[in-house]
Design goal:
The protein contains 11 helices and no strands. It is elongated. About 30% of the residues are buried.
């Protein structure tokens, strides 16, 4: 079968129109969900303020969320923080010593481990461990009609299911970030005793001089924002599952990928705002 130039041109125009139509429909559907997402975030924040006073039964959920997200993540966070902190200290000290700026290693540790690397890596670990689990769990509850049962009994799913996970994940990321920073600055002090004892002289004194209040506050703000992004994204896509059980793994994948994107965007925004 031979295709003429006119037919080929018409086919190309059709494909171009089809691609533009798909892109346009995707953009429209994306922005059409923005009002719902903003309302969902608002409901979550409002329900969080009344969580302790009104929803006693959900306290067990937040305790289990803290156990899974915070307690069980402590070993992997310790290994990551000690390994990366020690590597940054040893490699950075050798390089800075070669150019006569060895004292800057403490500023480097404070900037990378406490302010930048800690919140970001903790958020990535929590996303990989918890975002999929939360989205899958809520998606399974949707397909099994448990959410409809809550609504029919007069129980608000946002207050009972979303808020405990929102608070649990946000608090877990916050405390895991503090734990990461502690291990990340303690690890190099111990490792350097075996690798380069002279380099560890006055380690904590010099480090405390290099860590500013601004660095600590920025790190805390990042961890709280990242935790909110992870929990809201995971619960949002968990509730977006409709009827088929095959949508549950898709919701888990979307929760992880969109959480990563949200974390990176939030990180860039905080860096830009903090530098103004």
């Amino acid at each position: 079968m031979v295709i003429s130039l006119d037919q080929f041109g018409n086919l190309g125009a059709y494909l171009e129109l089809f691609v533009l139509k798909k892109i346009g429909s995707g953009v429209i559907s994306y922005f059409s969900a923005v009002p719902y997402l903003l309302g969902y975030i608002g409901r979550t924040f409002v329900s969080s303020t009344a969580f302790i006073r009104r929803v006693k039964a959900a306290r067990k959920v937040i305790i289990m969320q803290l156990l899974f997200t915070f307690i069980e993540a402590l070993p992997i966070i310790a290994v990551l923080s000690v390994s990366l902190g020690s590597a940054i200290y040893i490699i950075g000290y050798s390089f800075l010593l070669s150019i006569g700026q060895a004292s800057l290693i403490y500023n480097l540790l404070a900037l990378i481990v406490i302010r930048e690397l800690g919140p970001l890596l903790v958020a990535f670990v929590v996303t990989a461990r918890s975002a999929t689990a939360i989205a899958t769990e809520l998606g399974g509850m949707v397909t099994s009609h448990q959410i409809e049962s809550f609504v029919s009994c007069g129980i608000d799913p946002i207050a009972y299911l979303v808020v405990p996970r929102f608070l649990g994940v946000s608090l877990s990321v916050f405390f895991l970030n503090l734990y990461f920073s502690f291990c990340g600055i303690l690890g190099p002090a111990i490792i350097s005793q075996f690798v380069s004892p002279l380099a560890s002289y006055g380690y904590f004194e010099n480090l405390l001089k290099s860590v500013s209040i601004f660095t600590i506050i920025t790190s805390m703000i990042k961890s709280l924002v990242f935790g909110m992004v992870i929990s809201i994204t995971a619960t949002y896509y968990g509730f977006n599952v409709e009827r088929a059980s095959t949508e549950i793994p898709i919701a888990g994948i979307q929760a992880v990928s969109k959480s990563f994107v949200g974390i990176i965007i939030a990180d860039v925004l905080i860096i830009v705002l903090s530098s103004l």
